[in-house]
Design brief:
The complex is a heterodimer of chains A (247) and B (297). Chain A contains eight helices and ten strands. With 247 residues, chain A is α/β, with parallel strands linked by helices. Chain A has one domain: 3-Layer(aba) Sandwich (Rossmann fold). Chain B has a three-stranded antiparallel β-sheet. In chain B, helix 2 runs antiparallel to helix 7, helix 7 runs antiparallel to helix 9 and helix 7 packs across helix 10. The chains are: A alpha/beta (247), B mainly alpha (297).
């Protein structure tokens, strides 16, 4: 069952007039307003340097906004104290283009790592890692090292690690960027299943085919601003392109 | 949970130490050398204080020569007055006869004793003063006493005592100054080791942060690694110092016999405690400053 985002319910994520200017003077985001309700699946699209990654970094609180406010589940990220950050990040599942797996740890240990840093006990870790690896279809690869896995399998491990502490929402930054089209599609199916279980997913991507096929909510960022926010959108706003209109 | 986190931190610190063995060993060697210098500083300080103590014991005792015509009651009164003085530890009256017996008993006076006719020696009050710095005041008091022998009032050597006090203070200051420099250098070395360890483990640190590790969960292993580095260095330094201590003292005594330097096994225990504690603290402090600077969430 796919949960339909309820725009009338309390938002999980809310950007209110958010600006981000780096110390170099680069204006990465300009007056961004965005609301993501619970259970939503949002694609962040736009050209390189448009501000997608800055938006993701703000969401995981690697950066603070220069102006404006970001609320996640009612908590303003800009005012969050450093000691509260770990607890916030435990609510978030993060998936990156370069997987960010530890090469000296096995598949099992990589996934378990996310629970070990929380100080969970080993029995609980075993059960939850097994469950997460089962969800991503890697149950038989417990003792394999990342170097011996394909790109798609490595991304599955990264997703299992993101899921293992049962996060309320998933932030993915170009999760299919390093994968071939078939593997990318498999990974997307996985994200759809996770979303169907109730997790909110925010995904920055350049993968036009996937965005166009899935027809989910699309937020296009351009020159640091929200250029478009379609509930069931495409990668490009095709009608605005004169060459397409002419065909 | 604390036990599990501690176990994780210890494992990580141990793995990191061996994974970056070249850097770890470079730090261990550097800190070992510094701790050896610190240990030598402590040993030299201890040796000087031993020597100074023996001199102090000698110069903190002052003899007040009593004039021959002083009534015995006056001497007893003055002895009583000195005994009640809080600066004085002990006063002993030595009669003329006892002074002569002592003089004759000294093997270095054998020839002179045979030539003595009668008893030319004064009776004396031997006063032991608690603090070396008070000897001058007691000397002044004695010289004002009417019963003192005006030709040779006391055996007080003011200049020597003052120089001893000055030397003792300067040595103390120099020791503290040297230790302070060594502490700063050690901390900088440990900080750099931690910076390298942080660089080598940057990917792991990034993942830890992203999955919600607390700041001290990330920093803990580095602090333990610093403590481990300090302790290993202290153990090496201690072993080398213990091996070299006695031969060095023996060599010194054979070369400069008049300085009463001696091997003190009891000091080795306190040296071990100081070096191990110092190594651990230096390691902890250096790595603490290092992680605060290089590991941020």
């Amino acid at each position: 069952m796919v949960l339909t985002p309820d725009f009338d319910t309390r938002p999980v994520i809310s950007f209110q007039h958010v600006w981000k200017t780096y110390p170099t003077g680069t204006e990465a985001l300009r007056d961004v307003n965005l609301v993501v309700p619970e259970g939503d699946f949002v694609f962040l699209v736009g050209p390189s340097g448009a501000g997608k990654s800055t938006l993701v970094r703000l969401l995981i609180r690697e950066e603070k906004p220069s102006k404006g406010k970001i609320f996640v589940e009612g908590v303003e990220l800009g005012r969050m104290k450093r000691r509260q950050l770990p607890h916030y990040r435990r609510k978030v599942g993060l998936v990156f283009q370069d997987f960010k797996l530890l090469p000296n740890l096995t598949v099992y240990e990589n996934v378990a790592f996310a629970l070990r840093v929380h100080g969970e006990d080993e029995t609980k870790i075993q059960g939850r890692v097994a469950e997460a690896l089962d969800t991503v279809g890697l149950s038989g690869k417990n003792q394999t090292y990342p170097a011996n896995l394909s790109g798609g399998e490595q991304q599955r491990v990264a997703i299992a690690r993101a899921l293992v502490h049962a996060p309320r929402f998933i932030i993915a930054d170009e999760p299919t960027g390093n994968l071939d089209p078939a593997t990318a599609w498999e990974i997307m199916q996985l994200f759809l299943r996770i979303n169907a279980r109730g997790a909110t997913v925010v995904m920055a991507t350049h993968n036009r085919e996937i965005v166009d096929l899935l027809r989910r909510r699309v937020v296009a960022i351009d020159a640091g601003q929200v250029a478009r926010d379609d509930r069931s959108g495409r990668y490009h706003d095709d009608l605005s392109k004169p060459q397409i209109r002419a065909q | 949970m604390i036990y599990r986190n501690l176990k994780f931190a210890l494992n990580s610190a141990w793995q990191s130490f061996w994974r970056n063995l070249a850097v770890s060993m470079a730090a261990v060697v550097s800190i070992t050398l510094i701790l050896i210098l610190a240990g030598v500083n402590l040993l030299v300080g201890h040796a000087f204080s031993q020597v100074l103590d023996s001199f102090r014991a000698k110069v903190s005792e002052i003899s007040i020569n009593v004039a021959d015509d002083t009534p015995l009651q006056t001497v007893y009164d003055f002895q009583q007055q000195l005994s009640l003085d809080p600066r004085v530890t002990n006063v002993k009256f030595v009669t003329k006869e006892e002074a002569l017996t002592q003089f004759k008993a000294d093997p270095s006076n054998v020839v002179l004793a045979q030539q003595i006719d009668g008893n030319p020696l004064d009776a004396k009050l031997e006063v032991r003063v608690t603090n070396l710095s008070d000897v001058a005041a007691i000397d002044t008091l004695a010289r004002r006493w009417p019963g003192v022998d005006p030709t040779d009032p006391t055996n007080y050597q003011g200049d020597f005592v003052n120089r001893m006090l000055g030397l003792s203070q300067w040595l103390g200051l120099a020791g503290v100054g040297l230790l302070a420099i060594l502490v700063v250098v050690s901390i900088v070395i440990v900080m750099n080791t931690i910076r390298t360890a942080v660089y080598h483990r940057r990917k792991e640190i990034e993942v830890m942060k992203l999955v919600g590790a607390t700041e001290w969960f990330v920093r803990g292993p580095f602090v333990l690694e610093g403590v481990m580095t300090g302790l290993i260095a202290a153990a090496f330094a201690l072993a080398l110092l213990v091996i070299a201590y006695q031969p060095a003292v023996d060599r010194f005594r054979s070369d400069i016999a008049f300085i009463p330097l001696s091997y003190d096994p009891a000091f080795v225990v306190s040296l071990a405690r100081d070096l191990l504690l110092g190594g651990a603290l230096l390691g902890a402090l250096g790595s603490y400053i290092g992680v605060r600077r290089y590991v941020k969430l």
